[in-house]
């Protein structure tokens, strides 16, 4: 079973930056496609960013493109989400997802709060 744990959330001023980390278990981590989703308070979940198992392909929601960068370090079984130029509307619980041949696995989330 794959375990997924997010970290790095917190309170930040608008215009500031945060880097989220997602650590996933599994000896075949390098074969996992990874993604970040977020859920603003009282709202539905939305896609934020994704990265292929090779790290060569990345995908971004229009709302974050140019501000957020997803990357991965397969030697550490970790995916990162670098968030720059944060806006109050980025406030949400951020969830990491691991897509494997055996199924999809989610972390429990990390809260990002952006103040104006």
Flag low-confidence runs: none
Strand content: over 45%
SS-based class: mainly beta
Largest sheet: 7 strands, mixed
Order of helices and strands: EEEEEEEEEEE
With helices defined by DSSP (H or I, 4 residues minimum), what is the helix count? 0
- Number-wise, the strands total 11
On the 0-100 scale, what is the average pLDDT? 94
Cα-based radius of gyration, to the nearest Å:
13 Å
Task: Estimate percent helicity.
Answer: under 10%
Q: Label the overall shape.
A: globular
Give the termini separation: 40 Å
Account of the protein in words:
Helix content is 0%, strand content 53%. The chain has strands spanning 4-7, 10-13, 18-24, 33-39, 46-51, 58-60, 68-73, 78-83, 92-100, 103-106, 110-115. The model has no long low-confidence stretch (mean pLDDT 94). A hairpin with a 6-residue loop joins strand 5 and strand 6 (58-60). The strands form two sheets. Strands 2, 4, 5, 6, 9, 10 and 11 form a seven-stranded mixed beta sheet that branches. By secondary structure, the protein is mostly beta strands.
């Amino acid at each position: 079973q794959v375990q997924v744990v997010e970290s790095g959330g917190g309170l930040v001023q608008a215009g500031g930056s945060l880097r989220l980390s997602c650590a996933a278990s599994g000896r075949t981590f390098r074969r996992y496609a990874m993604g970040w989703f977020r859920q603003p308070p009282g709202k539905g979940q939305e896609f934020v960013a994704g990265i292929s198992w090779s790290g060569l392909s990345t995908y971004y929601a229009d709302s974050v493109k140019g501000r957020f960068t997803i990357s991965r370090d397969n030697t550490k079984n970790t995916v990162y989400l670098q968030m720059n130029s944060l806006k109050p509307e980025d406030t949400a619980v951020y969830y990491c997802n691991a897509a494997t041949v055996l199924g999809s696995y989610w972390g429990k989330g990390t809260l990002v709060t952006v103040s104006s």
